[in-house]
From TrEMBL:
<dbReference type="InterPro" id="IPR001633">
    <property type="entry name" value="EAL_dom"/>
</dbReference>
<feature type="domain" description="EAL">
    <location>
        <begin position="172"/>
        <end position="427"/>
    </location>
</feature>
<protein>
    <submittedName>
        <fullName>Bifunctional diguanylate cyclase/phosphodiesterase</fullName>
    </submittedName>
</protein>
<dbReference type="InterPro" id="IPR000160">
    <property type="entry name" value="GGDEF_dom"/>
</dbReference>
<dbReference type="InterPro" id="IPR029787">
    <property type="entry name" value="Nucleotide_cyclase"/>
</dbReference>
<dbReference type="InterPro" id="IPR035919">
    <property type="entry name" value="EAL_sf"/>
</dbReference>
<dbReference type="InterPro" id="IPR050706">
    <property type="entry name" value="Cyclic-di-GMP_PDE-like"/>
</dbReference>
<dbReference type="Pfam" id="PF00990">
    <property type="entry name" value="GGDEF"/>
</dbReference>
<dbReference type="Pfam" id="PF00563">
    <property type="entry name" value="EAL"/>
</dbReference>
<dbReference type="InterPro" id="IPR043128">
    <property type="entry name" value="Rev_trsase/Diguanyl_cyclase"/>
</dbReference>
<feature type="domain" description="GGDEF">
    <location>
        <begin position="32"/>
        <end position="164"/>
    </location>
</feature>
Length: 430
């Protein structure tokens, strides 16, 4: 009784561990390799929630039977958690493992019938093989678990562990640990990229961009570390550091005699806005540095509206009332909801660089850029294109009436000291 799951009659987690430990204690030969195949059912929670636990239990029994019927007498199937099953596949090779995994996946293309109703569930499978992927059991287990999670997040049905998956995981873990100390170790820095008005050719603003150099790992790009910071809940403090540092910088520029009436743009993540005192904390920084919200533009991506749009819109509206302007970043790449666009009073729409980079060579990208530009103008917003790298791109954007641009064609992001000289040297020539 202590070794079996009462619902499905399959071995339980304790029995599975005992069996796997037994196998991992042998000296490896060509014949005794085994794979751990982790399988997690997709949409099981939804089934439970909509049709009740009895229906869920019925589905688990059917799944257990279905999986069992596909295994050979050498294989060992256990139910290790709610909707998690695991197979120990003996006399395994990587090929026999993936053939078996494919069979398990295919068995889910038929519906699971409960009380006369068809339920379509999916399955996410990850595998790793002893001793190829790890000599000790715990690393084989964690690697097949890692492969299963990769299958889940990448919407693949089956992922077989490989070294690059392990490298990716280790690197993310290292980055998240090092990043959590980056502020206190003084490793973060800001650079400022000019924004140019396409009609007057004036410098109308700068976007503050985050840079991170870690002594051992070197320069790590924001496209890599910002998603990791978001995933590991580090964006609130890093984002606050960006606001604080930008404001201190504006203060310093002012002391140095730089009287600039454009806005400095700061990127804000959803984690920051969700914090209960984001508004108060941000305004306190500005007050401390004697900066008016009218000097700041907050760049937010459309994806911030996915989770709790009403709450986020309320915070954004409060910030707008205080004098900040809001730019919608990366427009067109994610979740573009026109109804929300209408509800919050953004001032600027930013066309993502992925459309801009091919705007003179790809007609589809050209149509997208033109449509976003027209949409922005029809809604009363200013439109800026980022990632402008050639004169042809700039000319095209001018021809469709786009308001502003930023990108390497005009200037790379500049360290704070170079901002003043950039303005003095370039205003007349742009
Ligand atoms: Mg941005």
């Amino acid at each position: 009784m202590t070794q079996f799951d009462s619902l499905t009659g399959l071995p339980n987690r304790a029995f599975f561990i005992e069996e796997a430990e037994f196998l991992a204690n042998f000296n490896p030969t060509d014949e005794n390799h085994f794979s751990i195949i982790f399988a997690d059912i997709d949409r099981f929670k939804e089934l439970n929630n909509t049709h009740g636990h009895l229906c869920g239990d019925g589905a688990l029994k059917t799944v257990a039977k279905r999986l069992s019927s596909l295994l050979s007498s050498n294989d060992f199937l256990a139910r290790v958690d709610g909707d998690e099953f695991v197979v120990i596949h003996r006399n395994a090779t990587k090929t026999s493992t993936s053939l078996l995994a494919d069979k398990l996946v295919k068995s889910f293309s038929d519906p699971i019938v409960i009380e006369g109703r068809d339920n379509y569930l999916g399955i996410s499978i990850g595998s790793s093989t002893w001793p190829i992927d790890g000599r000790d059991l715990s690393s084989v287990l964690s690697r097949s678990d890692l492969a299963m999670h990769k299958a889940k997040v990448s919407h693949q049905s089956y992922v077989c562990y490989n070294k690059s998956l392990g490298y990716e995981y280790d690197r993310e873990k290292t980055i998240s640990i090092k990043l959590s100390q980056a502020i206190e170790k003084n490793q973060l820095a800001l650079v400022y990229q000019p924004k140019i008005d396409l009609v007057s050719h004036d410098i109308v603003g700068f976007e503050a961009l985050l840079r991170w150099t870690e002594p051992e790992m070197g320069f790590i790009g924001p496209a890599e570390f910002i998603p990791i910071a978001e995933k590991h809940g580090l964006m609130t403090e890093i984002g606050h550091w960006v606001i604080l540092t930008t404001c201190k910088q504006i203060n310093q520029w002012r002391t140095a005699g730089f009287d600039f009436d454009g806005r400095i743009a700061i990127n804000i993540s959803v984690q920051q806005i969700e914090q209960p005192y984001f508004y108060e904390r941000t305004l306190a920084v500005l007050k401390n540095e004697r900066i008016s919200p009218a000097q700041i533009e907050l760049e937010v991506t459309e994806s911030i509206l996915i989770k709790d749009p009403e709450k986020i819109i309320a915070v954004l509206s409060r910030l707008i009332r205080a004098g900040f302007s809001i730019a919608i970043d990366d427009f067109g790449t994610g979740y573009s909801s026109f109804s929300y666009l209408k509800k919050f009073q953004a001032s600027v729409l930013k066309i993502d660089r992925s459309f801009v980079s091919n705007v003179t060579t790809n007609l589809l990208d050209q149509s997208i850029v033109q449509s976003i530009n027209d949409l922005g103008h029809n809604l009363g917003l200013k439109v800026i294109a980022e990632g402008v790298e050639t004169i042809e791109q700039s000319d095209y954007l001018t021809s469709i009436g786009c308001d502003m641009v930023q990108g390497f064609y005009y200037s790379k992001p500049l360290v704070a000291d170079k901002v003043l000289s950039f303005i003095t040297n370039n205003t007349d020539q742009l």
